[in-house]
Amino acid sequence: MSNDVTSGATAHLDLPTDDVHVSATTPRRSGLRWLLLAAGLVVALALPWFIYPPIAMDIACWALFAISLDILLGYCGLLSFGHAAFWGGSAYCTGLVAVHYGVPFPVAVLAGMLFAMLIAVPIGYLSVRATGIYFAMVTLAFAQMIYFIANQWRDVTGGENGLQAVPKSFFGIELVETESFYFYYAALPMILLGMWAAWRIVHSPFGRVLVAIRDNAPRARALGYDVETYKVVAFVLSAGLAGLAGGLFAISHGFVSLQEVNWTTSGKVVLMAVLGGIGTLWGGVVGAGFIVVLEDYMASSGFEGIGIVTGSVFVVVVLLFRRGIWGTLAHHLGRRRQAGTRD
Amino acid sequence: MAMNELLQYTIQGLAAGSFYALAALGLAVIFGVLGVVNFAHGACYMLGAVVAAVLQDTLGLGFWPALLVVPVLLFLFGVVIERLLVRWLVGLDPLYNFLLTFGLTLLLVDLVKRQYGVSGLPYERPEVLTGQIEVGGVGLPIYQLFVFGFSLLICALVWLLMTRTRVGMIVRAATERSDLARALGINVGRWVTPVFGFGIALAGIAGVLAAPFRAITADMGSNFIIILFAVVVIGGLGSIVGAVVAGFLVGLVEAFGQAYAPTYAQIMIFVLMAVVVLVRPAGLFGREEAAR
């Protein structure tokens, strides 16, 4: 029943080489991993002390969003150019639940996340029939459909005015509900949980099958794996994490705009994932941090035309640093390590 | 009455479809020979309109000369882009050029926005093309008829170029069976740069045609490119005929949608695309193996 447009199209993405994964099991490497994990946690906890807390929250949300995209791009070889549909779709759903039912925000975010997964099922089912560049175009077009629906359905979404006054209800704990500094710490566990889920997904047997499909779909099919189903499940899981991030973003801002479902948002998260490094997962965090801080800096310095800078960054990264920031670091570290063990 | 409405919306749809058909034709030719999906195609369409408006404002260049001058300028622009940027990524996964041209789009749109602002640039259409023609009691805008006729002419010329000339034969061979064309000793690489410029020039023509008709803003290509992707998915990415037919088809869907169900007009295009993806993943005119 496979209607694959392409079969056997091999990806030439600059992905981390597999020996990095293999060496990841050696004790020394795993020591480094714990060190990195600890360092990451410290940075995540300390962030709002150094950066304006709402911006810190933005970084956390975009980081999870970029990670969710990388599950598809890096581990399935599928470039979704329509992930704004899930981020924004969840943002609207989360906002609506929070506005109309006044539930604690984690509940609203969970509802948004489920909604994102729900719309991801038909979109994923249709999109995985296309591969490669087709997949990017089809997801982009479907996301635009969500955008038009959000734009037209004014009674519910507020149309161009957006969804206003989304509350941060949190079990009546006033500090969290009013102070963005404390809100960050209330929301962070959900972000970290999402990141942990992403890490579990790609390092599970399921994740290994995804990589096998990415590298050689006909072979995976011949081995008895239902390629399309695996892709759809990955798509829905990725959409769920994007939805988690988008829902928290909506709560954090107390406002949902049409911007969240626009294709520029899809493009922005792709930029973050590519800048961080395709197939590195954690690269998304670096990419998100870089772009959010850069945009905040430009906005506060009154520079109009952010696209001139982000567009140039994109062109330079794609031309010269296809491994991305994290990928380049991991590559050089891995090479040094290999050279070290050879001695 | 109903007949009159039908005629009116048909012309409207064909005019709207003309922009899609011309631009999609350029997209298809570029994809065929380079294997590159040019995300910046919408931005090039926008540039066509903006350059026409700026030339009219500064040099007093009229609509008719603009139809010749602007495509030539965009051809040169395309040649520069191909030589400087696109070329380095052609051998890699096509996603990289998709991303590259996406970055280029952000860059171009915001550069134009910074230079000319967000409000539309003015453009005067020539006297001859204003007004309406009465056909069976229906007033049809002359400009819409002209746009449709002119784009058909261009499509026909491109078709003749493709089928009746040696250059066209090489490009078609490269589009359909690139490896086989190479094996037969045809230097496909020689045609890469001019074909890229040619595709961009087609987007430029669509832009000039749109200049007197649509609001000329930096963002005019943003929605356009996404509809254009739907067009090539519907038509079949590798197919030149498919691009043109799907372009007009989508224009018609848009016009009739706006007339009878304005809320759903844009959504209907994507529903059409979803149906095509479901039933014929390679597009209406695409070969299963052609979509790489």
Automatic annotation (TrEMBL), chain A:
InterPro entries noted in UniProt: ABC_transp_permease (IPR001851), LivM-like (IPR043428)
Membrane-crossing residue ranges in chain numbering: 32-52, 59-81, 101-126, 133-150, 181-199, 229-251, 271-294, 306-325
Keywords: Cell membrane, Membrane, Transmembrane, Transmembrane helix
Gene Ontology CC: one annotated term: plasma membrane
Subcellular location: Cell membrane
Membrane topology per record: Multi-pass membrane protein
GO molecular function ontology, one term from the record: branched-chain amino acid transmembrane transporter activity
PANTHER family per the UniProt record, alphabetical: ABC TRANSPORTER ATP-BINDING PROTEIN, HIGH-AFFINITY BRANCHED-CHAIN AMINO ACID TRANSPORT SYSTEM PERMEASE
Annotated protein name in UniProt: Branched-chain amino acid ABC transporter permease
Origin species: Nocardioides gansuensis
Biological classification of the source: Bacteria, Bacillati, Actinomycetota, Actinomycetes, Propionibacteriales
